[in-house]
Design goal:
By secondary structure, the protein is an alpha+beta fold. The chain folds into 3 domains: 231 residues, Heat Shock Protein 90; 135 residues, 2-Layer Sandwich (Ribosomal Protein S5, domain 2); 155 residues, no CATH class. Helices cover 32% and strands 24% of the residues. It contains 16 helices and 21 strands. The chain has a 10-stranded mixed beta sheet. Strand 20 and strand 21 form a beta hairpin. Helix 1 packs across helix 3. The relative contact order is 0.06.
């Protein structure tokens, strides 16, 4: 038994006890029954049995974990209060369900018009860790620790920080008031009293807060995409999640997911916005769970908002989604919708922005792009080949075929982008085979001293090196670039036999051009090329 602090407040009996002792009392069914019955009838409850000293010590440790260490962001517990208010909506509720948020200089309050809590429910679901009566399929909260995390405000600001919960069925109202005289959780106490009358629903007030200036934006981030059909949230009288949002395209779609081993259909949502005339802060990819913000990633062009159904679970800290089968099923449909959106916005400017958006989305989602070939055909209709713009192959290809071939090559300086799209295109080897027609493979000696009529007469071939085989080719579609040489990475050098350097006998410019072009094609540096040219000049 514990010595309850009994007080008279406005001629009503008030009950007060350390939270750790109150929880151990509520965990015992007989003690809970006696406690609830005594308070409801305004009787003395000092003879109610509670837990042992050992159970109290264990409860102090558990409460410390759930109250003080639940969220790394000190603002985050207030989000849990809003989620609880939304979850209180009755299943039979008709009309517009409103959750009212009030933000003051040092206080925050949330009030709902949902199912009220009895005293028993307040003493169990609110303060017993992991105790919850919520439906995992329908409700946002599911861990039973959201309210508890708000009690940290009592500890961070002793004697000034207070958390007060009132719940009423319209006739009877019970109030739980939490405060602490120090930062030690053992000094965290709860006062219980009854109030006559009241408005149906539950109200939670947190005072003694240090409210940052951007707190309003914080709530808009978490609830701005909440489904207004389920609840309308207002902050100081202004709607956070208006029913009609302008500026982006929204999709609602069913997804078959697994729940307790059975396949069920749940609804997911997607919003896309890619136009360039929006604020920088809207350029991101955001993930939501049942309309509540979970996490975000950066996007340089456009914005995506994905709202996952309850079957896609979040971790206990609610800052990450669990990447499982249900997550993959939702993402597959999301990618289909993104593809549909891209097909509806085919202007070059739109497709450029959407190409960037899908890249960031794919990177954010763990490289799970679906219908990749369809996206490739949409974004790059005239591209056949892929090479890294920073690679020697790309520079040599332009020099050999001419700059016009660059319009058919996907060349991206960003390594991760190159890795995303390159596998969907033909590579350097395929380009050489498709864009050239092989005439003959020869050595330098066979070019200098032709042994048969099939070897073409080429001038200035004496500058060629002896340690390579040369593939004599003609270009099928392109006029050719500055260089007549292209190293094919197999010990063979492709030679454009129609290049002007081979058509003028003994030309000084041609010989120097051939020497420099060959060395560049073989990857020599500027100093090596310069030494080669000087050496060739001396020999002449």
């Amino acid at each position: 038994m514990f010595d309850w602090a009994l007080k008279y407040f406005r001629k009503r009996r008030v009950y007060e006890l350390p939270v750790s002792q109150l929880v151990t009392t509520a965990l015992n069914r007989k003690s809970l029954d006696a406690l609830v019955s005594g308070i409801e009838s305004r009787r003395d409850v000092s003879d109610v049995k509670a837990g042992t000293p050992d159970s109290q010590r264990y409860m102090v440790k558990m409460l410390s974990e759930e109250v003080e260490k639940q969220f790394s962001d000190e603002r985050r517990p207030l989000v849990e209060l809003v989620s609880n208010a939304i979850d209180a909506k009755p299943s039979t509720y008709e009309g517009e369900y409103k959750v009212q948020l009030s933000l003051g200089r040092k206080s925050f309050e949330v009030q709902d018009q949902g199912n009220p809590m009895t005293l028993r429910q307040m003493l169990t679901t609110l303060i017993i860790p992991f105790e919850t009566n919520k439906d995992a399929l329908l409700d946002i909260g599911r861990f039973g620790v959201g309210f508890l995390s708000n009690l940290q405000y009592c500890l961070t600001n002793p004697d000034k920080g207070n958390v007060v919960v009132e719940s009423s069925d319209g006739k009877n109202t019970y109030r739980l008031s939490f405060q602490s005289s120090s930062q030690d959780i053992r000094d965290l106490s709860c006062r219980i009293d009854a109030v006559d009358g009241g408005t149906v629903g539950t109200k939670v007030n947190v005072s003694g807060l240090t409210i940052p200036k951007n707190m309003g934006d914080y709530f808009k981030e978490y609830f701005g995409f909440f489904d207004s059909k389920r609840a309308i949230a207002t902050l100081n009288g202004r709607v956070i999640n208006p029913p009609n949002r302008s500026g982006f395209t929204e999709y609602r779609f069913p997804v078959n997911v697994f729940v307790n081993g059975e396949e069920k259909e749940q609804e997911a949502r997607l919003a896309i916005f890619h136009k360039g005339d929006f604020e920088r802060k809207t350029r991101d990819i955001k993930y939501y769970s049942q309309g509540v913000f979970v996490l975000s990633d950066e996007s340089l062009d456009g914005a995506l908002k994905i709202d996952f159904p309850s079957a896609v679970e979040v971790v206990e800290g609610r800052d990450e989604l669990k990447y499982n089968e249900n997550f993959s099923r939702v993402m597959d449909v999301v990618w289909d919708k993104v593809l549909d959106y891209c097909r509806d916005h085919k202007s070059p400017k739109d497709l450029k922005a959407l190409q960037n958006l899908t890249y960031f989305f794919n990177y954010s989602a763990g490289n799970r792009m679906r219908n990749k070939l369809s996206f490739k055909d949409l974004f790059f209709p005239n591209i056949s080949y892929a090479m890294a713009s920073y690679g020697e192959e790309y520079r040599s290809t332009l020099a050999f075929f001419g700059d016009s071939i660059g319009t058919e090559i996907y060349s991206e300086p960003n390594w991760t982008r190159q890795q995303l799209w390159s596998p969907e295109f033909l590579g350097f080897k395929d380009l050489v085979e498709r864009e050239t027609e092989l005439t003959k493979r020869v050595t330098k000696e066979e070019l200098v001293n032709p042994t048969d009529e099939s070897t073409p007469k080429l001038y200035n071939v004496d500058v060629l090196r002896n340690d390579y085989e040369y593939s004599l080719v003609q270009l099928k579609r392109f006029q050719g670039g500055n260089s007549p040489f292209l190293y094919a990475n197999n010990g063979t050098v492709c030679v454009n036999t129609n290049h002007p350097y081979f058509r003028t006998e003994g030309g000084f410019t041609s010989k120097y051009g051939l020497t420099a072009s060959l060395e560049m094609a073989l990857g020599s540096g500027e100093r090596q090329i310069e030494e080669k040219l000087i050496q060739g000049g001396r020999e002449r």
